[in-house]
Design brief:
Elements: E1 3-4, H1 15-22, H2 35-48, E2 52-56, H3 59-70, E3 75-80, H4 84-87, H5 92-97, E4 100-104, H6 113-117, E5 129-136, H7 149-162, E6 165-170, H8 173-180, H9 184-190, E7 193-197, E8 208-212, H10 214-226, H11 235-247, H12 252-267, E9 272-275, E10 282-287, H13 293-302, E11 305-306, E12 308-309, E13 314-318, H14 325-336
Parallel strand pairs: 1-11, 3-4, 3-5, 5-6, 6-7
Antiparallel strand pairs: 2-8, 7-8, 9-10, 10-13, 12-13
Helix pairs in contact: 1-11, 2-11, 3-10, 12-14
Length: 342
Amino acid sequence: MIVDLRSDTVTKPTAGMLNAMFSAKVGDDVYGEDETVNKLEAKVADLFGMEAAIFCPSGTMTNQIAIKCSTNPLDEVICDETAHVYRYEGGGIAFNSSASVRVLYGDRGRLTPELIETNINPDNIHHPKSSLVVLENTVNRGGGSYYRVEDIEPIYHLCRLKGLSLHLDGARLFNALAETGDDLKDYGRMFDTISICLSKGLGAPVGSVLLGSHEMIQRARRVRKVLGGGWRQAGYLAAAGIYALDHHIERLKEDHAQARILEDALRKLPYIVGVLPVETNIVIFELDDNFKSENFVSQLNHQGIKCNKFGMHMVRMVTHLDITSEMIGYTIEALKKVHYHH
């Protein structure tokens, strides 16, 4: 048995999704003529009550476009030190936007208005201009921790008061919403730009959507083109995204339930010293000081179970729609057989 718990990006399209892709009506998206892409963009914008959307190949691209469109060179982006835009996008903020980054130390990646306010630079030529706050929901390195609307509301008001833009890296936003039941339109009201990933828990093979005002998305089209993101008959991929939004949102709760079963099993193992509270589909745990994560990952690999090293003693597992309860059972049995030395 192969159990791939490395990420929720490894999902394969379901039969229904493949069928939707095969029957998609397509055109040239650079000319604005792919009707399935247009339908996806309109659908997502409507879900969030926002004016417009643009479909892109990846969440890194949607995040980077949003940052580029919301900053000028010499500006500063405020985010948590664990943020994907800071850690996992290849230094793109510096490369694409010539902006610097102020990293904050939130609670498992979640920021508060107090923390942000004390880190907004004064208007002084010695400092870069604070111009954009980026929140991530759920927080990958926070073990899938999430914000509720009531946590974001005061941050939104602070940004309005201080003249800062607010971007949401919502790569796994639907995982957060599966737990909170919050209204998507509240997100649309508070954020200037929102990035949504379709290829993680929602299970589409490729693609992310960036949302914003008509003017913002016009600018985004220009930046997407320059980054090489102008694509042609992308409707085959957009059809997968539409299918995912129609059929895979409700089932995210199943992934969360599987993740909690893993969490319970991990907490009972002698070589594990801690597990971050599992709130969605990400399980991050810490091994005993004498147990290196590469040794652990390699042992599981030999049993057909794939997971990610997340630090010298840290490991990450992520549940998704291709993980069955049999696979979770198999993984738990394998975890009990792991060899380690005190």
